[in-house]
Automatic annotation (TrEMBL):
Keyword tRNA-binding assigned: no
Region feature Disordered, mapped onto this chain: 1-30, 286-307
Protein source organism: Megalops atlanticus
Entry annotated with the keyword Cytoplasm: yes
Protein name from the UniProt record: DCN1-like protein
Entry keywords, A to Z: Cell membrane, Cytoplasm, Lipoprotein, Membrane, Myristate, Nucleus
Length: 307
């Protein structure tokens, strides 16, 4: 879903195109604007949030979570009515969908997704949008089918822009549990594929962006080293397979930051072997450089002697 913003903004700050190519002109191809009718009226109070309520990564401060929530955060909002104080309405969900649906296709596509995210006051490339797509079980970036949108709104019991925004804090908490995060993590791989082209692996640049995105709330210590390795690409990897994607989550949970407990004899993908060798060598060179820089300089010798 964050994919649609890449055609409107600098790809270096978003997910990049599915092919990994950057938009050379950097010009917007998405029409800006707020959804009409009910969408426009409901967006007002939500968008009145001040910038100080946002964290550096774009997510809002979790002040709403300071209230007492059970040990199962996913249950905290399932018993709540819609934000308007009534049970959610299927008719209102359908009406909300109609605000953003494409004129020719019975789905919310790139332009409608841009307006939808604008009304939610979220950047299409931020973590909250990924979580919403996960809750909606969206099959494709930058697209919600009618069924995905309607069933997703029913699942979170929201039938308005305001209602969806009110659900974000609990959805973020829900994504933190181990089982739910594993499901979100695996969903993210499938979400990043171009289903129309029948892709079976993620382009390396898309995988790098999605790894940064999915680990927004809990970043593994080894993540940036892994992404540096992929960026420098010493192994010549062009795509990330589903197995490599899934195993990296296990890697972050099992292997310590110092990599000392990594064993090539275990059933890790060969790319991990290359990464560990590369990272250990990189750390060794850095340690040698620091050691050299720490050596005291030789004292200056004065010319001439005593008269």
């Amino acid at each position: 879903m964050g994919q649609c913003v890449t055609k409107c903004k600098n790809p270096s700050s978003s997910l990049g195109s599915k092919s990994g190519d950057k938009d050379p002109g950097g010009k917007s191809h998405c029409k800006k604007g707020v959804g009409g009718g009910v969408c426009k009226e409901e967006a007002g109070p939500v968008c009145a949030k001040s910038p100080s309520d946002l964290l550096a990564n774009g997510t809002k401060k979790m002040e709403a979570e300071s209230r007492v929530i059970s040990s199962h955060p996913e249950d905290a909002w399932k018993e709540e009515p819609a934000a308007n104080g009534e049970e959610f309405s299927l008719a209102r969900i359908e009406e909300l969908f109609s605000c953003y649906k494409d004129e020719q296709d019975d789905a919310i596509l790139e332009e409608g997704m841009e307006r939808f995210c604008n009304d939610l006051c979220v950047d299409p490339a931020e973590f909250r949008v990924l979580v919403l797509a996960w809750k909606f079980q969206a099959a494709t970036m930058c697209k919600f089918t009618r069924k995905e949108f309607v069933e997703g709104c029913k699942a979170i019991k929201a039938d308005s822009i305001e209602g969806i925004c009110a659900r974000f804090p609990c959805m973020l908490l829900e994504a933190q549990s181990e089982d739910n995060f594993k499901d979100l993590y695996r969903f993210t791989f499938q979400f990043g594929l171009d289903s129309e082209e029948g892709q079976r692996s993620l382009h390396r640049d898309i995988a790098i962006a999605l790894w940064r995105l999915v680990f927004t709330q809990d970043t593994p210590a080894i993540l940036e080293c892994w992404l540096d390795f992929l960026t420098e690409n010493p192994s010549g990897v062009k795509g990330i397979s589903r197995d490599t994607w899934n195993m990296f989550l296990n890697f972050t949970q099992v292997i310590g930051p110092d990599l000392s407990n990594y064993s090539e004899d275990e059933a890790w993908p060969s790319l991990f072997d290359t990464f560990v060798e590369w990272e250990i060598e990189r750390r060794k060179k850095e340690a040698e450089q620091r050691s050299t820089e720490a050596l005291p300089e030789a004292p200056d010798t004065q010319e001439g002697g005593a008269s």
